[in-house]
Amino acid sequence: MVRVTLTHMNEVHVPPGWPRQVPPPDTPGWREAAVPWLLDQCPADYRAYDVWRRHPEALAWIAARHVAGEVEAMRSAYRVARIDLAERVPPEALPEVIDALESEGLRLRAVAHAASLVWEAMTGKRYVPRL
Q1: Which position has the higher pLDDT, 1 or 33?
Q2: CA distance 16 to 32
Q3: Residue 54's closest CA among 39, 73, 74, 76?
Q4: Please, which residues have CB within 8 angstroms of residue 68's CB and are 6 or more apart in sequence?
Q5: C-alpha 8: how far from its chain's center?
Q6: What is the sign, positive or negative, of the torsion defined by CA atoms of 119, 120, 126, 131?
Q7: Per-residue pLDDT tens for 72-127?
Q8: How many other CB atoms sit within 10 Å of the CB of residue 36?
Q9: With 0-12 CB in 10 A as exposed, 13-18 as middle and 19+ as buried, what is 70?
Q10: By three-state DSSP, how is residue 6 classified?
Q11: Do 94 and 85 form a contact (C-beta atoms < 8 A)?
């Protein structure tokens, strides 16, 4: 759990997996500060649409959906890579490809979780640590 101390009396808690680049919910300007991180999780072309900057909630929604789709695509690729690539890449390359898919899949799962947390926070859900 990441803890950000605002004062000696108040602490803001964020759930495990909260993106480090995004300030905790309810801190001043946190929604606007989340926009660059959310845009980084989407295709570069999304930056051309001003609507995402004007409506961070909509950006969080689409970013969470986009990254979830990337996770599914990576899972699908991992399942069929050995079959589809067996005769198309040198035999020594296949383990490297599988390792890369696995690493990227793990990274994407963490990003998907973080994006979902930001989306939930944008919709008003707050994390309460367990004692």
Answers
A1: 33
A2: 21
A3: 39
A4: 112, 115, 116
A5: 31
A6: negative
A7: 999 999 999 999 999 999 999 999 999 999 999 999 999 999 999 999 999 999 89
A8: 12
A9: buried
A10: coil
A11: yes
> Tokens 């295709």 sit at which residue?
43
Distance between CA 1 and CA 14 in Å, rounded?
A: 7
- Report d(CA 60, CA 116) in Å as an integer: 8
- % helix / strand / coil in the chain, to the nearest 5? 60, 5, 30
Residue 126, SS3 per DSSP: coil
d(CA 60, CA 39): 9
Average pLDDT in the 50-70 region? Answer: 98
Contact 39, 56 (CB under 8 A): no
The rounded distance, in Å, linking the Cα atoms of 2 and 119 is: 18
Question: Which positions ≥6 away from 112 have C-beta within 8 Å?
Answer: 64, 67, 68, 70, 71
Q: Which two tokens stand for residue 63?
A: 């970013």
CA–CA separation, 33 and 8 (whole Å): 24
